[in-house]
Design brief:
Number of strands: 20
Structural class: alpha+beta
Low-confidence stretches: none
Radius of gyration: 23 Å
Number of helices: 9
């Protein structure tokens, strides 16, 4: 049996076993991962992976699993187990059949952009990043490059049989000038043309040089200039909790906020996986529904949640093409640009803090949006519109909704961000937030 026939085979098998609805996604991936430290490549791994995601319903009863692709016999065993599990699983609130196709998809979104997984080319990307950081004055570099070519084959009981091929490149670069002075930046792309490892290394190197000799920062409320890595972390959280599923289970600070002013008027947030060549491009969601451009926040007003067919039926709306069979989610977040450059918005800050990166964002309360996160790498005091000194040992402890309303400026310069801390690719500007609360940190 050919690979592209397996999803349809499993759908038919599950229907014969008693399922009312079935969705099967075969994810076939070629992956290259290169790690580097102390200015040289240390690990180079190339591997293939094929897995099958199976979701089925017996009306209100659901079950799902992920199994490695090995043989039709294993697939049959997985279906039999899922049928048994579904029958004893407590029923959901409602039954929403999978959307009925067939659907038409944009052909530009179905083919990858020809990303190369050739080892010499990938190592060349790494060397570009390292050399650019060193040219800026960094002493050491470390990081990871990931390159992927993947094929998604989806079949559902709703008469869907679709295939998408996509590729992605992602490099994360940390540059060091001392044990406590570092910078970090990334470059991601769904094509070769827009991938820029040199710029990632250059930016990381500049931050590391500026971060030399940091002093302990003082806690308090400051006007904060947030770099793209930080603002992407916050904005991706907004996109994630716009999932109607998270709203329904009480894990979203956007609950009951539709048509409410949740942010300053300068903020416009969109989920758009229909941009060919972008990292988060998707032609169809996990139910086979064509993806689309969805405005989440418009001029600070929350316009919609993201839906699959089940959450859409519960909320009395149509699906937004964001399934996740259990939880809908964003694909490719975009913050619309402002009008000023980084230099212009920096020059307008008399007293503040510039944060270039953060990690370990954790919530104290999902429903209210109370959270904390730890700045890492370069962090700087701003005095009279310029960076005055390097600081460290502070934590951001604040509230998501308060931050959104306290946004003062958004830059016209934007960068695509995705890395360990930012799971959803996000096109992100610099942002100025007034009265951001900083507390002491021991890290």
């Amino acid at each position: 049996m050919r690979k592209d026939e397996i999803p349809l085979y499993i759908v038919d098998l599950a229907l014969k076993k008693g399922a009312t609805d079935v969705a099967v996604k075969l994810h076939d991936e070629q992956h290259a991962m290169i790690r580097f430290s102390n200015n040289e490549v240390t690990v180079s791994k190339f591997y293939n992976e094929s897995v099958i995601n199976i979701f089925l319903m017996i009306e209100k009863h659901r079950a799902a699993t992920t199994v490695p692709l090995s043989s039709a016999r294993n697939a049959e065993k997985a279906v039999n187990n899922l049928i048994k599990i579904a029958k004893i699983t407590p029923p959901s609130e409602l039954y929403a059949p999978l959307p009925e196709g067939p659907f038409n998809y944009d052909p530009k979104l179905l083919k990858d952009s020809g990303i190369s997984l050739h080892s010499e080319r990938l190592i060349g990307h790494v060397e570009e990043a390292i050399n650019s950081a060193l040219e800026e004055g960094a002493k050491k570099t470390a990081g990871t490059l990931d390159a992927t070519k993947e094929k998604i084959i989806l079949a559902t009981s709703g008469n869907v049989h679709a295939t998408q091929e996509r590729g992605s490149l992602e490099i994360s670069v940390r540059a060091f000038t001392s044990e406590v002075s570092s910078g970090h930046f990334v470059s991601i792309s769904g094509d070769e043309e827009n991938f820029d490892p040199s710029e990632a290394g250059r930016t990381a190197g500049k931050i590391a040089v500026a971060a030399l000799n940091p002093q302990s920062g003082k806690p308090g409320k400051f006007t904060a200039l947030l770099g793209p890595l930080v603002f992407a972390d916050l904005i991706s959280q907004v996109g994630i909790v716009s999932s109607a599923f998270l709203v329904d289970i009480g894990q979203s600070f956007l609950t009951d906020k539709i048509d409410s002013q949740i942010a300053c008027e300068k903020l416009n947030l969109i989920d758009d996986p229909t941009i060919a060549g972008s990292y988060g491009v998707r032609a169809f969601d996990d139910e086979g529904v064509p993806t689309r451009r969805n405005v989440i926040i418009e001029r600070g007003v929350l316009k919609r949640y993201l839906h699959n067919s089940t959450t859409a039926k519960k909320h009395g709306v149509e699906t937004t093409g964001n399934a996740g069979l259990i939880s809908p989610h964003p694909w490719n977040l975009i913050v619309e640009p402002g009008e000023k450059s980084f230099e212009e918005i920096l020059a307008e800050i008399d007293r503040g803090i510039y944060v270039t990166n953060d990690w370990y964002l954790r919530y104290q309360n999902y429903m209210t949006g109370d959270f904390s996160t730890i700045p890492r790498d370069g962090m700087f005091l701003i005095r009279n519109g310029a960076l005055s000194s390097s600081i460290r040992e502070l934590r951001i402890s604040d509230n998501m909704l308060r931050i959104l309303k306290n946004i003062q400026e958004i830059s016209r310069t934007r960068t695509w961000i995705k890395w360990w801390e930012v799971d959803v690719p996000t096109l992100t500007p610099y942002a100025v937030v007034r009265d951001l609360n900083f507390t002491k940190s021991t890290m």
